[in-house]
Each structure stands twice: as C-alpha cells, then as structure tokens.
Amino acid sequence: MIFLMVVIGGVTRLTESGLSITEWQPVEGVLPPLDEAQWTAAFDRYKAIPQYRAIHPDMSLAEFKQIYFWEYLHRLWGRLIGVAFAVPFLYFLLRGRIAWRLAPRLAGLFVLGGLQGVLGWYMVKSGLAHRIEVSQYRLAAHLLAAVVIYAAMLWVALDLLWPSVAIGSDRRQAMLRRAATAVLGLIVLTLVAGAFVAGTRAGYIDNTFPLMDGRFFPADYWQLTPWYLNAFETLSAVQFDHRLLAETTWLAVAALWLYGARSSLSARQRTALHLLLAAATAQAALGIATLVLVVPLPLAAIHQAGAMALVTAAIVFRHALRRPRVDAALAPAV
C-alpha cells in the first residue's frame, strides 16, 4: 500500500492536482463533495489560490473534478493505510501474538505514518498563498519521509520472514555489506533528486540523452547566487544533478554486482544481487525513455514505481547480508 501511495503521489504531482483540495480535514475529508453545491464550493476555494489564476483560469468544473480525484485518492489512500496498519496491530497485540520487543517498532511506524500526513499538509500549504505550486523542498522531504517509512517497514517484515542468516564474517563480506549500504544511500539520494526534478518540472527541458542541448554540462548551470541554490532551483542544474546521480547509481550497482558475483553468497543473497542489477537497469531505461519522450504521464508513473522497486531490491539485498543472529524476542508468542 505504501509502494502504491508513492506512485499515486507522483501522479498527483505530475497532473498538478496537489492543490485542488485547499483544506486539511483528517476526519471530515474522508467524504468527497456529494452534490453540486459542495462541488461548487470546493471549486470556489480552488479559484482563490494563485495556481488557478496563473495556470487554470479557464478550467471548468468537470476539469476540476479530474484533478480533485487524484488529490482525494492520495489522501484517502493514506487514511486507509493507517486503518490497515492500526486495526490488525492492536488486534494481534491484545491477543499476545506480537512480541513486546517488536511492538515499539510497529507503534513507531504508525506514528511516522501520522507525521507523514502532517508533513503532506505542510507541503500543500506552501502552494496556497504565494506560489503557484508546492515548494520543491517540501515535496522532496515528503517523498523522503515516505521512503524512510517504507524502508523501515520492509526491514521489520524481512526480520520476521528471515530471522536468521548464514553469512561469513571475513573481510570480503564486511566490505560487501558496507558497499551495499553505500549503494542504498546513493539510490535514495537519486530518488530525492528526482523529487526536485518533479517539483520544478525540470524534466520538460533538454529532452535529449546522453547530452543536454549538445553539452555534457549545461551552460546555464550557475545562474543563481548563492551558488548552492542552483542545485535546487535552476532547472537545467536540477535535471543535470539527477542525471549524473542516476548514471553514478547504475555504475555503482554494476560494480557491486561484479564484486558480489566473485564472493561466496547464499542462494538468497545471490538472487537478491541479480534482482538489484535488473531493477537498476530497468529504472535507468525508464528514466531515459521518460526524458526523451517529454514525461508522458503513464511512463512517468512507471518510472516512479521503478524507483521504489529499486529501493526495495537494495533493501532486500542489504538485509540478506546482515550479520548472523536469531532474535527470538521478535518471534510471536505461542
């Protein structure tokens, strides 16, 4: 559900739907407008923000309903995730099926999910008064938080599925663990850089590969002062950074694969390593196609899903490399 939530969030951004709901009502917002009067009132609230006046001054009510759908679905799906997590968690906890040492981890995940909702509204607020879209900084923070929650939940799940491993403790294995951790960090950094591309709409310029307007390094990279703002606000710089990070990520995964292929790995670890290379290659191809085809919505959504698939593969591989232990305290009570 969290995986799909990230994809829905990407579509919401790409369709400029994120500001269509201008209020945050955690309880009342479960229901969408139910009659023409409520739809008109919601549309009037949207007309009052700068985005409507600058981008959609001729929008009809029917067109407004289309962008409203994506933001409503995004918020509704977040609420459903909370229910899908909290209800069985409390049920199994009260029945003694969850070890008490595991309970704080699960409760922490639920709290993080709630805070993510607050962060989402903080992001939306940035586009309601003085901007025509949300802040790319808050958008990147919102996506990063989603990835952190997803990664933490996946790690806990893998701990329960595979409570022990058999891996050597020699220097080569230790280096492989460190390299896998570094690659995971690089993947997440590239994903966050992609959020800045989406937040600034930098994917709609320089739609060629491998060069940008015939150059490797864009001529207008250094436009702003202070210099570090260019990496977050100059469109060509934002796109270049994401490109460079993506290329570096693929090379890092390939190097990790070559190194791991010469190591003594279990069948699970070797399979996870192969899947990591496959996911990185597929994501690179999706990224290039999305760029040169000028960000078609279906392909861009698949590219977002590919990023999460790559994160998943990296976490599964890194988890498979963890030091051997059996944490009986995480096992459910009998």
General description of the model:
- By secondary structure, the chain is mainly α.
- The chain has 2 domains: 1-161, no CATH class; 166-334, no CATH class.
- It has helices spanning 2-14, 36-47, 50-55, 61-94, 103-125, 136-161, 171-200, 230-233, 235-261, 267-292, 297-320.
- The longest helix is centred in the first third of the chain and has 34 residues, at 61-94.
- The protein is flat.
- The mean pLDDT is 93.
Helix percent band: 55-70%
Regions with pLDDT < 50 over 5+ consecutive residues?
Answer: none
Gross geometry: flat
Largest sheet, strands/sense/barrel: none
Task: Give a nutshell description of this structure.
The protein is mostly helical. Helices cover 67% and strands 0% of the residues. The model has no long low-confidence stretch (mean pLDDT 93).
Topology:
Blueprint: H1 2-14, H2 36-47, H3 50-55, H4 61-94, H5 103-125, H6 136-161, H7 171-200, H8 230-233, H9 235-261, H10 267-292, H11 297-320
Helix pairs in contact: 1-4, 1-11, 4-5, 5-6, 6-7, 6-11, 7-9, 7-11, 9-10, 10-11
Write a concise keyword list for the protein shown above:
about 325 residues; 11 helices; about 0% strand; 2 domains; mainly alpha; about 65% helix
